[in-house]
Each structure stands twice: as C-alpha cells, then as structure tokens.
Amino acid sequence: MAETNDKNEKVPLPSVAIDGTRIRNIREAKKLTQLYVANVVGVTTDTISRWENNRYPSIKRDNAQKLADALEVSLDEILRQELSDTDETSVQPAPPPARRAVVTVLAVVAAVIVGLLLFFLLRQPPVPASATRWAPRFAAPGEPFPVQVKVARQPSAPFGFILREKLPPGARPVNSLPATSSADSELKWLVPSAGTPVTVSFTLQVPASFNPGKDAALKGEIVVHSADSSNRTETVGGNGSVHIGAYHWADSNGDGRIDDDEIMPAYYICEEMKGLGLDWKTIEAIWSGKGYRWDAKHGYTVLK
C-alpha cells in the first residue's frame, strides 16, 4: 500500500492551456488589479503577469479554476481555443509565384492610373464656390423680411460676378447692401473681381394682398467672370421659399413666439443688415414677452 501511495503522489496534476491575452482583457474590462487576482488565486502578481503574457502557456487546472473564479467567468472563457481540423483544412494555400507576380503587376498599374488621375485633377483650375441664399422660413405679408446671398471667393482664384435675384410676384425691395440695379421683378448686382468672400443683403416685402398660406419663391443665378475672360452661369443655392402668413420672420419654427434659440440668429442678421428696414425693437419685445399675434390691420402685437 505504501508503494501504491508513493506512485499516486508522483502522478502530475492535470494542466490546461490558458489564453493570456484573453485573461488580461477580462481583468481590465472588469477593472480588477493583478494584486487582487493574485490574492484570490494564491500566487504572486509576477505569476499573474507571466500568465497574461503567455510566459506559462499551461498551468494547473485547479489554479486555472481559481483564476476563472477571480475573474468571475467560466473556466472555458480563459482557455486557449485550438484550431479544429476544419479550421486547419480551410486555410487556403499561398498563390503560386506566377499568380503573385500577376497580382503585383496589376497593383502597380492601378497605382499608376490613380496617380495620373490625381495629377490631371489637381492641374484643373479651381471651381469657384456656388452662391448660397439664406432666407427666413416664414414672413408676414406687407412686412419687411431679410435675404442674404453669400459667395465664397478664395485669394488663389479671384473672380468677379453678376448676381441676379428674381422676386416673387408683386414683391418689392425695401433696401439692399450693396446697392442694387432693380427692375420690376429682378434685382441685379455687379461685383468686381477679388479673392474675398462677398455677402449681398437685401430686404423684401410681399404685397399685403399676398394669399396667406402660400409660399413666396426666390430664384437667382450668378454669372462668374474668370481671369481668362470666360463666363459661367451658376444657380444660387440655399433656401428659396418663404411661407407667407401670420408670422414674424425671426420666428424660425412658426410657433408664435421668439425663443432663446431664435433671438441670437435674429440679432446677428439685424446687426449685419443695419439700415435695411429690419425692426430689432419689435423682435426684442416679442422675445421678452410671451409671444406675438399678427393681423393685417395692427401688424405685430406683443403678448404680455
């Protein structure tokens, strides 16, 4: 019996292969320190560090179980996953040398083509930015409302342009900056060549008889005069539709009041367009009150 016991004592304890990287990721995700894990398992922090760095690819099974318990996961989650026969057979062999050579040549040809395309694209003269219109979403008939057209120009590509804005039927301009050459239904500006951005500002009124509930449409274009004396016509982008009704233009969502989100944009517009017929005092009074009401006879009435 003594001999049998000696043999049993010499039998090595079962070991398992652990995945150090997975162990470290689990520990860090759970915000556990190496010292805490080492105390639970009953080893040193140096041992934990070596396990996480795969210095010991296999350890005693009971230590592995203690490690899993410390990390609050099952034992299977920290064991190394060996490739199955199916995974090994699914690995594709490397292409033969001749095929690799063909792939390399095709890659070089593709890189050359892309390089040539970039070269010719970069040699093309820069295209001036299109003009963009800002107009309010709402306005009342007979009341002035602001419109701005911004044209971005760069020092590297200066140009002059003609701006034309076609007005809604019956609308009339109140004022503009810079001054405009106006016709019955169209405003015009001639802007000399330069490389700095331009903002054209103007105020409009649709007639008091304009049908409430309808949209007043603005359409425009710029004729760009480039340095090589060529002309190109571009449509003005941005908002070109203003809904006409019992609204103030600064009431951007049409809810019958001017709130904190609307007052600052209105202030900046009024500052940029001083002297063009916008009534800042009324806007400020509506913002300070509980809202407003509009009718054709009395205009805007502030609700207290």
UniProtKB/TrEMBL annotation:
It comes from the Bacteria. SUPFAM superfamilies: lambda repressor-like DNA-binding domains. InterPro entries: Cro/C1-type_HTH, EF_Hand_1_Ca_BS, Lambda_DNA-bd_dom_sf. The chain crosses the membrane at residues 101-122. SMART domains: HTH_XRE. Signal peptide: none annotated. Keywords: DNA-binding, Membrane, Transmembrane, Transmembrane helix. Residues 23-78 form the HTH cro/C1-type domain. The keyword Transmembrane helix applies. Pfam families: HTH_3 (PF01381). This is Helix-turn-helix transcriptional regulator. It comes from Geomonas anaerohicana.
